[in-house]
């Protein structure tokens, strides 16, 4: 009885969900697709950077542009002062709370003022408009 139910399951599949011969692909076509997936997609993926640059220069006349300087040395001095003031004030308040019992009122007042001043400086360094080349505002 169970064998009859197991063999007739194909008759119970709705017509819209049945696969016809037109939607099947040949075994050779399937093997070609699998082989394409197995091949590396990048032609020069395993090449060192220097070799890639040399090939691009030879074949396409490509010249690398000058690298943009990055890091804290190129940042504006007020931005760096704001960062140092914000994190330095937090660090000094934590160290003061650990090592100085009771914490002097003037130390607490100066620490909070410097930390808030640095945070306000960081707030004013936020970008005010979007650049036209960025789509959704997210950037890395």
For this entry, give a set of tags.
mainly alpha; 6 helices
What does this entry look like structurally?
The protein is mostly helical. Among the domains are: 10-43, no CATH class; 77-125. Helix content is 55%, strand content 0%. The protein has 6 helices and no strands. Helix 5 runs antiparallel to helix 6 (105-124). The longest helix has 23 residues, at 77-99. It is elongated, with a radius of gyration of 33 Å. The mean pLDDT is 79.
Order of helices and strands: HHHHHH
Task: Name the beta content range.
Answer: under 5%
Shape: elongated
Return the average pLDDT rounded to an integer.
79
Q: From the helix content, strand content and strand pairing, which structural class follows?
A: mainly alpha
Low-confidence region ranges: none
Tell me the distance between the termini. 64 Å
Helix content: 55-70%
State the major sheet. none
Number of beta strands? 0
What is the radius of gyration?
33 Å
Helix count, DSSP H or I runs of 4 or more residues? 6
Break the fold down into its secondary structure elements and pairings:
Layout: H1 2-7, H2 9-12, H3 27-38, H4 49-60, H5 77-99, H6 105-124
Helix pairs in contact: 5-6
